[in-house]
Specification:
This protein has 64 residues and is α+β, with helices and mostly antiparallel strands. The chain has 1 helix and 5 strands. The structure holds zinc ion.
Protein backbone atom coordinates (compact mmCIF):
# COMPACT_ATOMS: atom_id res chain seq x y z
CA UNK A 1 0.00 0.00 0.00
CA UNK A 2 1.39 3.42 -0.85
CA UNK A 3 0.21 6.99 -0.39
CA UNK A 4 0.57 9.82 -2.86
CA UNK A 5 -1.05 13.22 -3.12
CA UNK A 6 -3.01 14.38 -6.14
CA UNK A 7 -5.35 17.17 -7.06
CA UNK A 8 -8.97 16.48 -6.22
CA UNK A 9 -11.06 16.29 -9.40
CA UNK A 10 -14.01 17.91 -7.63
CA UNK A 11 -12.54 20.90 -5.74
CA UNK A 12 -8.94 21.12 -6.96
CA UNK A 13 -7.44 20.84 -3.48
CA UNK A 14 -4.80 18.32 -2.53
CA UNK A 15 -6.24 14.85 -2.05
CA UNK A 16 -4.67 11.64 -0.82
CA UNK A 17 -4.48 8.64 -3.13
CA UNK A 18 -3.99 5.22 -1.59
CA UNK A 19 -2.98 2.45 -3.97
CA UNK A 20 -3.51 -1.20 -3.19
CA UNK A 21 -2.52 -4.21 -5.21
CA UNK A 22 -5.40 -6.65 -5.40
CA UNK A 23 -4.52 -9.84 -7.23
CA UNK A 24 -2.02 -8.00 -9.43
CA UNK A 25 -4.41 -5.15 -10.25
CA UNK A 26 -4.06 -1.60 -8.96
CA UNK A 27 -6.98 -0.51 -6.83
CA UNK A 28 -6.70 3.18 -5.98
CA UNK A 29 -8.77 5.17 -3.51
CA UNK A 30 -8.64 8.95 -3.72
CA UNK A 31 -9.87 10.75 -0.63
CA UNK A 32 -10.31 14.52 -0.32
CA UNK A 33 -10.58 16.05 3.16
CA UNK A 34 -11.69 19.36 1.73
CA UNK A 35 -14.90 18.31 -0.03
CA UNK A 36 -15.22 14.81 1.45
CA UNK A 37 -15.14 13.15 -1.97
CA UNK A 38 -13.97 9.59 -2.33
CA UNK A 39 -13.35 7.99 -5.69
CA UNK A 40 -12.08 4.57 -6.61
CA UNK A 41 -10.23 3.30 -9.66
CA UNK A 42 -9.37 -0.23 -10.71
CA UNK A 43 -6.55 -0.69 -13.18
CA UNK A 44 -6.74 3.02 -14.00
CA UNK A 45 -10.48 3.01 -14.75
CA UNK A 46 -12.95 4.80 -12.43
CA UNK A 47 -15.32 2.47 -10.60
CA UNK A 48 -18.10 2.82 -8.02
CA UNK A 49 -17.48 2.18 -4.35
CA UNK A 50 -19.75 -0.88 -4.41
CA UNK A 51 -17.69 -2.33 -7.26
CA UNK A 52 -14.47 -1.67 -5.37
CA UNK A 53 -15.75 -3.45 -2.28
CA UNK A 54 -16.93 -6.37 -4.39
CA UNK A 55 -13.50 -6.64 -6.01
CA UNK A 56 -11.69 -6.62 -2.68
CA UNK A 57 -14.16 -9.06 -1.11
CA UNK A 58 -14.20 -11.50 -4.00
CA UNK A 59 -10.48 -11.53 -4.58
CA UNK A 60 -9.57 -11.63 -0.89
CA UNK A 61 -12.01 -14.50 -0.41
CA UNK A 62 -10.20 -16.59 -2.98
CA UNK A 63 -6.90 -16.23 -1.18
CA UNK A 64 -6.17 -18.93 1.37
ZN1 LIG B 1 -12.08 17.80 -3.07
Amino acid sequence: MSHTTERCATCGQEAVAIAMHVDGTDLVMRSCDNCDTRTWALGGAPIELDTALDEVGLRAGRRR
